[in-house]
Write a structure and sequence with these properties.
Radius of gyration of chain A: 19 Å
Low-confidence stretches of chain A: none
Number of domains of chain A: 1
Number of helices of chain A: 12
Helix content of chain A: 25-40%
Order of helices and strands of chain A: EHHEHEHEHHEHEHEHEHHH
Oligomer: homodimer
Largest interface: A-B, 68 and 68 residues
Strand content of chain A: 5-15%
Strand order of the largest sheet of chain A: 1-2-3-4-5-6-7-8
CATH architecture of chain A: Alpha-Beta Barrel
CATH class of chain A: Alpha Beta
Mean pLDDT of chain A: 94
CATH superfamily of chain A: Aldolase class I
Distance between the termini of chain A: 42 Å
Amino acid sequence: MNFSTEQLPGAVEINEVGPRDGFQAEDEFMPTECKVEIIDALSRTGVAAIQVTSVVHPKAVPQLADAEDVMARIERAPGVRYTVLVPNLRGAERAVPMGADGWELMLSVTDSHSRSNANRNTDEALRGMEPVVALARENGVEVTGSMATALGCPFEGKVPFERVLYVAEAYRAMGVRHLGVADTVGVADPRLVFETMSGLKERLPGITLGLHLHNTRGMALANVLAALQAGVTEFDSSVGGLGGCPFAPGATGNISTEDLVHMLDLMGVGSGVDLDSMLAVAREVKEVVGHPLESAVARAGKAEDLHEAPQAQAL
Amino acid sequence: MNFSTEQLPGAVEINEVGPRDGFQAEDEFMPTECKVEIIDALSRTGVAAIQVTSVVHPKAVPQLADAEDVMARIERAPGVRYTVLVPNLRGAERAVPMGADGWELMLSVTDSHSRSNANRNTDEALRGMEPVVALARENGVEVTGSMATALGCPFEGKVPFERVLYVAEAYRAMGVRHLGVADTVGVADPRLVFETMSGLKERLPGITLGLHLHNTRGMALANVLAALQAGVTEFDSSVGGLGGCPFAPGATGNISTEDLVHMLDLMGVGSGVDLDSMLAVAREVKEVVGHPLESAVARAGKAEDLHEAPQAQAL
């Protein structure tokens, strides 16, 4: 068994979600100018896509109330996809004039989480997505069907694979060809990730799958490894590991883009992202948010950084 | 490919190293009484072994100057192996009357790290271990030949596999049958771990291998997964993730025992450790050391902990 070449993909795509999933978790509203500056810096790191903002109702997520402004003011780099998170039809109608390259539709696989987050159960949320998908098609916008709590729910615990498949098939029936599997509260383990992603690939040929991980229990990079072994080649991650978990205050958030790229680089899996550029953005982010980052590499430096051996004790 | 049953071992052994590798990294000297209390609590968690202390010179590591006292005062539980770290012959002579079940011999695979740590190069350190191994044999003590910097050196960077094999074979020539591979500064990635552990297993039949990981760059649990896939069944870990990295102040230390056991439990790999008992010890450790722990599960809770769905928004 050759771990590197037989089991792992040669390259993956990074979808940077810090500007949405990260900024919305900050206590303070981040000034629009800062958001734009960070997104523009991210555009120059080599990420495949950036989730710029969300068209959720500003009362629900005041941190992203400037969605239109941010989208209008960023400088779009050629080759980078700029997406917005779209929770419902009202949001989609707001999103149309913003001209994003893609919409990420978001709903929860478990009813209790769906009710808690969107005040409707999963089936209702799925029905609500039908006109959204139609509107995207009319406007030539690509959609990703994201599945929150697909790898575990804070209220219901383990989620049966058949439930995830049910939601995935409902998305597919609407014509969605790109799905996102989310470990919303950071409870997935590598075996679950491998089995879920392998299972979905097998049952849904022709569908592309991305993975959205949180590092709440330290397993995010192990889950990346398992996902790579299952053939997954699209990963969400957040610069500086921004993002939180409402059920575990003080816990780590999204998998950090630096930590992900650092591991991929060491393993010889290409991502197109320049790690030094990303670490520079992380330093900028740290300044702006004003608290330490949950990013191991930002804290400790790269594995390849060498230190000088102490001279005093040299023979 | 079935991730769980074909690729992974059914059970592993945990060697708790917090009392040595962790306590020695604390700024403050931990009172002997506290050490004994924590070790006794660890004895009741189900770990296979505990590295109790080190017989390094007290001037070099004042935090463990009470090695004899600690060893004499702990209550040894049946079935648990109690070991001490032995850096040289002088230490071994101190260790004999302590009556440990095992000695962990420690030397660095890279000359620059060996000189920095022990003021001698690797070959000199290996020659110095010969009388230590002989003394262990005379006293019926099991030895583990540990190899610091085997997966990367802070001064030299990447370490060629042939260099690790050279040191492993030197240990074997002395009659050592149990080796420890250490990622001393937390730079290993899963591919390197898989290839090194697989390579050593292939080249050294009959030798048992343990793995000592640091989580400095967030890859420890991913490295565990890779090691499991290489058939490794012995892991060092530290309660609360105690332990530091002198080259990355503020960075995470050893892989946390709670995080390791938590992931193994979720994956169905037995360790014999009761996670709740270990989390209780971690809480005690946190009190004693007086700073936050680098343990994701201690911070965030277990994946299986459920939360109550908010009633206000329920349909």
